[in-house]
User: Which sequence fits this backbone?
């Protein structure tokens, strides 16, 4: 059982999402930074796809009425953990005695922090996933103060074998590698160079659906609308304004704006950790 | 033409919705190794395959696209399932649609029921199917100001498309009526009653 004393700015339950339903209009959803979610699960001996809590800008307080192992990964936050755990923090299994509280401060850098519990967060799955999909509303509602989350069974889980993992390192000047296309021919020949010239700033109109950027405008070679087509995570979609949007976990499965390039899968966890005001470069 | 989408997906240009549907069905029957998502669109099919050899998959898709360009007949042909959707034509916009089209409300209903539609693709919301083949006399623009609330089961039209709202949501389509047929149920498998390529007929009921 986890009691949400305060969820912080925005907290949801996330696992690895609901793949396989895009043709029925269902976003993939799941943890925005999958690398940090799977690490948190491994640290407490869970299968990588167990559900955990995704915090946005930290600032949460959780209470554990029953003793359990937890791990906190992702955007590094100052942690207040039970006495006797001084020096133990992010990216490590932490034993929470019955009734103990975890205070998660505000991260100095990065955006999303994950709290995994041994056994996993056990809310009702929808289409085989416990993830909150902020676009479609599938899955549990965002977490509220006073709410209690059940924890799944720990019997049969693997042992906890690691004392600590390296913390998330966030580059001072983030670079996202991109693969051009599929619709680079909708843009002026120079557009890819403009995209990779940058820098772009993450705007406040960013969320789990997409990251809206401001920066050099990408000139189009063609006007008009593209017939709606399937979209992938990391797609850099360019609406008529010319300001790109990077699609994140809850992106719509189809879209009608051309995609100039797609962020490399290995750089998506980093993209999900960029916060409004951060600057980034693209590299082709 | 097949375009690469990032490291793990291919976008097949079919050029036509019927070809998208045939390719979609061929791919669902065959399920090439490593394919996670098959997403048909009006002129494309996106194939997401993080665990596949994309070069090999591309070769296979080229062959399947070739097959998909030819209509199929007989068992397993283009005759995908027919869904009848019973409709009570009590929609808030029925009179406006009649005015916009120059038809009587009765004629709007007759034309809405009068042709067989085909599920083109899904989008906007889980289970929201864009139905193609709407009688051209019923092509009307969306509302200038979308409603903040459209109930589940609302039967609506906009532009060349018809739809049934799978769940309550905001919406800008014009409401002709409502159906009691649930088109979206997360406990059902598959959860969507209307899937790409299926034929749909509306039927007036009281």
Assistant:
């Amino acid at each position: 059982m986890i009691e949400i004393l305060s969820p912080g700015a925005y907290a949801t339950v996330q696992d690895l999402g609901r793949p396989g339903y895009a043709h029925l209009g269902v976003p993939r959803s799941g943890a925005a930074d999958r690398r940090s979610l799977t690490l948190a699960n491994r640290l407490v001996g869970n299968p990588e796809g167990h559900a955990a809590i995704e915090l946005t800008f930290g600032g949460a307080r959780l209470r554990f009425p029953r003793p359990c192992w937890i791990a906190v990964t992702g955007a590094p936050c100052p942690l207040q953990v039970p006495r006797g755990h001084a020096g133990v923090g992010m990216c490590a299994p932490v034993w929470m005695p019955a009734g103990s509280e975890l205070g998660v401060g505000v991260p100095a850098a990065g955006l999303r922090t994950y709290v995994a519990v041994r056994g996993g967060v056990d809310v009702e799955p929808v289409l085989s996933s416990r993830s909150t999909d902020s676009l479609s509303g599938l899955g549990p509602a965002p977490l509220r103060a006073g709410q209690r989350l059940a924890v799944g069974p720990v019997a049969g889980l693997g042992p906890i074998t690691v004392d600590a993992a390296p913390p998330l390192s966030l580059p001072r000047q983030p670079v996202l590698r991109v693969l051009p296309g599929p619709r680079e021919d909708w843009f002026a020949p120079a557009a890819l160079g403009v995209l990779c010239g940058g820098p772009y700033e993450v705007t406040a109109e960013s969320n789990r659906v997409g990251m809206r950027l401001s920066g050099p405008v990408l000139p189009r070679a063609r006007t008009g609308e593209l017939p709606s087509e399937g979209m992938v995570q990391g797609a850099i979609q360019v609406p008529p304004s010319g300001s790109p949007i990077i699609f994140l976990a809850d992106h719509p499965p189809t879209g009608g704006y051309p995609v100039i390039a797609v962020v490399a899968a290995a750089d998506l966890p980093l993209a999900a950790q960029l916060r409004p005001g951060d600057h980034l470069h693209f590299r082709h | 033409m097949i375009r690469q989408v990032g490291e793990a997906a291919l976008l097949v240009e079919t050029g036509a919705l019927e070809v998208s549907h045939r390719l979609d069905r061929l791919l669902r029957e065959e399920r090439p190794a490593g394919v996670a998502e098959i997403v048909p669109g009006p002129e494309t099919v996106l194939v997401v395959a993080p665990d596949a050899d994309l070069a090999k998959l591309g070769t296979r898709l080229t062959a399947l696209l070739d097959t998909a360009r030819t209509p199929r007949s007989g068992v397993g042909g283009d005759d995908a399932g027919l869904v009848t959707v019973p409709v009570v034509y009590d929609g808030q916009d029925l009179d406006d649609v009649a005015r916009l089209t120059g038809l009587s409300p009765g004629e709007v209903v007759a034309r809405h029921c009068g042709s067989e539609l085909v599920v083109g693709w899904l989008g906007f919301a889980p289970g929201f199917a864009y139905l193609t083949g709407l009688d051209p006399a019923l092509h009307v623009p969306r509302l200038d100001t979308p409603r903040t609330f459209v109930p589940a089961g609302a039967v609506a039209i906009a532009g060349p498309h018809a739809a049934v709202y799978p769940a309550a949501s905001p919406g800008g389509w014009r409401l002709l009526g409502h159906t009691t047929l649930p088109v979206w149920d997360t406990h059902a498998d598959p959860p969507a009653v209307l899937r790409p390529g299926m034929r749909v007929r509306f039927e007036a009921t009281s």
User: Anything to note?
Assistant: Residues 2-149 of chain A form one domain.
